[in-house]
Amino acid sequence: MKSMLVATTDPSVKASLRSALKRGQRLEEAASAQDCLALVARRRFDLAFVDISFINEQLTPGAEPDYGAALRPFRASGGGTQLIVLTPPESIRQTVSAVKAGADNYLTYPVNPHEVELVIAGLNARRQIESELEYLRESSWRGDASGLLRTRSPLMREVYEKLEMVAPTRATVLLTGETGTGKSFLARLIHMHSSRSKGPFVAVHCGSIPDTLVESELFGHEKGAFTGAERRKLGKFQIADQGTILLDEVGTISPAAQIKLLQVLQEGSFSRVGGEQDISVDVRVVAASNVDLAKKISEGGFRNDLYYRLNVFAIELPPLRSRREDLPLLVANLMDRLERKYGKGISGVDEQAMQVLTAYDWPGNIRELENLLERAYILERGRRLGLAGLPADLVALEHPGEADEPSEGQSLAEVRRRAVEEVERRYLERLLTAKKGRVDQAAAQAGVTTRQLRNLLAKYALSSRGFK
After folding, report:
1. Do 326 and 298 reside in the same domain of the chain?
2. What are the Sigma-54 factor interaction domain coordinates in residue numbering (predicted)?
3. 313: β partners
4. What does residue 152 show for φ and ψ, rounded to 5 degrees?
5. Residue 142 lies in a domain
6. Of 184, 151, 173, 160, nearest to 322 (Cα)?
7. Based on the structure, what is the number of domains in the chain?
């Protein structure tokens, strides 16, 4: 650790820290929360010692204390800063809450130089172990997935640990979480690291299949089974034999298909629609749902016995807003991918843009982040992605004065036109995110024709492929 910061009004602490420094290490000082945050905004520190009172200043008055949010500004320069809370004994309860919310350790006043050395040594050892584990994890995952597997989030570490345990087994897995959290990505990882990795991986988006065709899509049909069945068709389960099938949005399938799915899970066999012969398959099932299946059971929309067959090994993916510490890692990985795809020579994101991205709640999760970054990358004219390419409403949330406000020199008609266009563009982005880039479904939702929607996408330089 070469760069350290101490933020406190106690001069004895600064002296204790300086006595613990080694050659080549430097210590910056701040006497207030404002000075501390100004330093953090300008440069990255390996380690920061911050008084609990400075952290408390970031809490919202009258609200439930959110120390996760209060700590975030002290790591604004990139998220890699390790944070030590300095506290008087009477504030130890608040300090424990801060440590639980993400601070790395704490020291009580008066600060002892020997304790400082022990804390720094402990953090160095922990960082070394985490680096080694991160390296081993990344080296064990194949392909382009390793960049997205890097994490600083305890919630995601737990997800990856579960995934590594269950992937080599034959167990059925149920992935739950909000739309866009990466359930399909995780399902592919489970397949890649199973004994079935050389077999097929078949993904079925159950929510996009009409109820009348779900059984045919999953289990196939015989010629003449229904009007339009002009030839025999193999179902997705038969195609996935000796491999893995992902049933995305499994909670949307019809009651009749639920019965057949239960049969496959129990007996490993099914019959095609219109057929009488039992077909045996060896398929591992990974199901995914963004709705509460237990609630659907209580409402009569999902079979209780099927739920327990699917819920053998459950993994819940946290929303992106609950793992903000991973934003810099995800953004860096996605920007690298965009650079390989488009090659515009854009490297990274500037600090202001990163602050905006970190402050946003990401209701569409990682999928929304991917789509937003691709659009911003395409619009960016400089060498680093800045505020110019980000949606105005996002910039306004973090920098209210920096949004592109109308001026008195414009006509009322021009102001209205720009306001309508901005709202219209944001609506299209949200709509395509919700429909995963499917233009026909988005057009139906919007109440326009597919052609009209495509014209609007062209007007705003939006590509439906970027939302899939």
Report:
1. no
2. 149-378
3. 173
4. -115, 5
5. no
6. 151
7. 3
Q: Percentage of the chain surpassing pLDDT 90?
A: 29
Angle between the N-to-C axes of helices 351-359 and 327-342, in degrees from 0 to 180, rounded to the nearest 10: 120
Of 18-32, 36-50, 182-196, 293-307, the poorest mean pLDDT is in 18-32
- What does the alpha-carbon distance between residue 251 and residue 350 come to, in Å, rounded to a whole number? 41
Q: Which residue has the tokens 């911003």?
A: 376
Q: Which amino acid is residue 63, in one-letter code?
A: A
- Could you check whether the bond before residue 400 is cis, i.e. omega within 30 degrees of 0? no
What is the predicted pLDDT for the residue at 422?
Answer: 76
Residues 98 and 215 in one domain: no
Query: Does residue 2 or residue 301 have the better pLDDT?
Result: 301
Q: Contact at 8 Å (CB) between 335 and 373?
A: yes
pLDDT at 286: 97
191 close to 243: Cβ distance less than 8 angstroms = yes
